[in-house]
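Problem statement: downstream parser choked on a complex file, so we are re-checking the raw output for the glyoxylic acid run. The parser issue turned out to be on our end (a line-ending mismatch), but while we're here, posting the original submission so the record is complete.
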Amino acid sequence: MKKVFVSRPIFPDVIERLKQYFEVDAHDGPALPADKIAERLADKDGAFIAGDPVGAKAIEGAPNLKVVSNMAVGYNNFDMQAFNAHGVLGTNTPDVLNETTADFGWALMMATARRITESEHYLRAGKWQEWSYDAFTGSDIHGSTLGVIGMGRIGQALARRARGFNMRVIYHNRSRVAPEIETELNAEYASKEDLLKRADHVVLVVPYSRESHHTIGATELTLMKPSATLTNIARGGIVDDAALIDALRRGQIAAAGLDVFEGEPNFNRDFLTLTNVVLTPHIASASEATRRAMANLAADNLIAGLGEGPRAGNPPNPINPDVLKK
Ligand code: GLV
């Protein structure tokens, strides 16, 4: 039987599925650092990974490794150059999380614009004594301009929701989306600078890469309206967190909603000193149904990638399909 490693506790029935095909070494405990993951991979044929780092050292130290399946759509935790060099297939879990993640982006944007958590903290602290005309006044979502940076599948799902709120949608992407999608979403392409100047609510949905590192930094924040909000449901590192903290402190933008952080879970604790942020622990895809769909899809990819099950040799979501041809 081939040997697989599972890097985090996951749904027990998904582990049972893997056990039908493989000898499973399932880690049960807090997240492992990169060197411990590498140790556990050394004698394995495959791995089920949930966002943990799999770098060149781990790949080089695991001569039998053929497939590493990520239970996430983003795969910046994988060193794809090393995967390709050693003929290791990487897989991810796109699509099944689009709607859930777009729902969450919307929730975070609305909570940020309407100061939901800030006002709840006030209530919980027993400070609510009387009504006031200007208590926690925020900015409207309906009728405002939504700026989506990253118009992939999740960005499109997010933009689709703007229709019900009668919003103008502008977007920036590496390349323009097809004209029929622009028409369907009533979305106008804009340069990043133009979008930042015009949008009332900016939402980031770009994958992390060297190119998207600090897409939003001090310079970009100066372009935004003082009344604008910034929501990041993409990845830590797309925003320069120190620059954002500075901008929020100085009121350069109104507020930010953040589900992802540089260095998470060890995020910049200065965020905790600010009232104009909504902070969540990387949970945009966390509905019960979607996490289950992601786990099963990651298992499908691993099983098929290692030549087992009904789709043997034809995993649904190869990141680097060329290695399958070799
Ligand atoms: C979550 O962040 C994912 O990439 O699926």
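For whoever reads this later: The mean pLDDT is 97.
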